[in-house]
């Protein structure tokens, strides 16, 4: 793996162990959007949260306005339940020791991100250099491009870490490299179909990967 200057991170499914609560809220919203199938597994999540998220509900008959309504309600519910969500603590520990500048680029509200990170003793004001959350009303591609400009980094110098097929597509639009974790919202065998830069199957794989990045970033 080549050395990188900056690390961009998705939050839910990568740093935050939120999939079960995410599925609960999808299933709750099915009362309002009954054509969306019930979700119980990673494979179910790959079916519902496929392609770019803003287009993912089209196969279930939802139009643009209904899709926005679904995600607005879902994100609000996830933010309200942030106190119930636990971080992947080994990931947080490894990130705390990673010397690269780090920016969280997520579809979640930044207040939910901070509420979950504050559960970890490793979290402090310098843990990340920024959080680009849902409140910015931009796509991840737009957020990544903005963050690249902030750090004056070339597209070849940044790596994004995500857990959804849509993350791969957003990164390809920039384009920057993407590492996908297989323990998040989408299973590794599904993510492989989208040809990310690499797949990190487990939390421990990601921890070892972060340690490798840190060593390569040393002068």
Helix-strand layout with pairing:
Blueprint: E1 6-9, E2 16-17, H1 19-29, H2 42-48, H3 64-80, E3 86-87, H4 89-97, E4 102-105, H5 110-117, E5 130-132, H6 140-150, E6 158-162, H7 165-173, E7 177-181, H8 188-191, E8 198-200, H9 203-217
Parallel strand pairs: 1-4, 1-6, 4-5, 6-7, 7-8
Antiparallel strand pairs: 2-3
User: What is the CATH domain class of the largest domain?
Assistant: Alpha Beta
How does CATH name the architecture of the largest domain? 3-Layer(aba) Sandwich
From the spread of the alpha carbons, the general shape counts as globular
Helix count equals 9
- The portion of residues forming beta strands comes to 5-15%
Number of domains: 2
Q: Write down the secondary-structure element order.
A: EEHHHEHEHEHEHEHEH
How many individual β-strands?
Answer: 8
């Amino acid at each position: 793996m080549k050395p990188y200057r900056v690390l961009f991170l998705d939050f839910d499914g990568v740093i935050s162990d939120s999939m079960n609560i995410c599925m609960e809220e999808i299933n709750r919203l099915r009362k309002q959007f009954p054509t969306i199938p019930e979700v119980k597994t990673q494979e179910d999540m790959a079916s519902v949260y496929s392609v770019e998220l803003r287009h993912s509900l089209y196969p279930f008959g939802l139009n643009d306005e209904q899709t926005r309504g679904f995600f607005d309600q879902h994100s609000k519910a996830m933010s309200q339940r942030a106190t119930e969500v636990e971080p992947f603590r080994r990931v947080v520990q490894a990130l705390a020791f990673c010397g690269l500048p780090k920016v969280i680029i997520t579809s979640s509200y930044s207040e939910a991100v901070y509420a979950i990170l504050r559960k970890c003793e490793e979290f402090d004001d310098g843990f990340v250099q920024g959080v680009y959350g849902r409140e910015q009303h931009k796509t991840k591609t737009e957020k990544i491009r903005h963050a690249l400009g902030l750090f004056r980094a070339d597209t070849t110098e940044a790596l994004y870490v995500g857990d959804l097929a849509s993350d791969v597509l957003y990164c390809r639009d920039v384009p920057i490299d993407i590492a996908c974790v297989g323990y998040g919202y989408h299973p590794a065998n599904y993510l492989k179909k989208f040809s990310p830069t690499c797949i990190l199957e487990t939390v421990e794989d990601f921890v070892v990967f972060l340690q490798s990045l840190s060593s390569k970033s040393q002068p």
